[in-house]
Design a protein that fits this description.
Low-confidence stretches: none
Helix content: under 10%
Number of helices: 0
Structural class: mainly beta
Largest sheet: 7 strands, mixed
Distance between the termini: 40 Å
Length: about 120
Amino acid sequence: QVQLVESGGALVQAGGSLRLSCVASGRALSTYNMGWFRQAPGKEREFVAAIGWISTFYEDSVEGRFTISRDNAKNTVYLQMISLKPEDTAVYYCAADATRFGRTMNGYWGQGTQVTVSS
């Protein structure tokens, strides 16, 4: 079992930056592919970014603005977001999956952290 806890969500103006964190407990993070997803009001949850041991993968809409990284020693995954847009407003979820990578990840989930970008 893996427990994931996200933090770092906030209200920010368009063009601003935020860094989300996801701390894992229960098992070593290094054994999992990690990802970030988001869900806006009235929309389905969508993939944002994923990181494996070395590789990363991003949704087209965030490529070049968001950066996913991991610190296995701290059992933490980060999502650095810059040049935020109102359409980035959503609840952001952290995901851990031992086998799948990218959009199909569906293992363990955190409770989410709210990001609101005002125009």
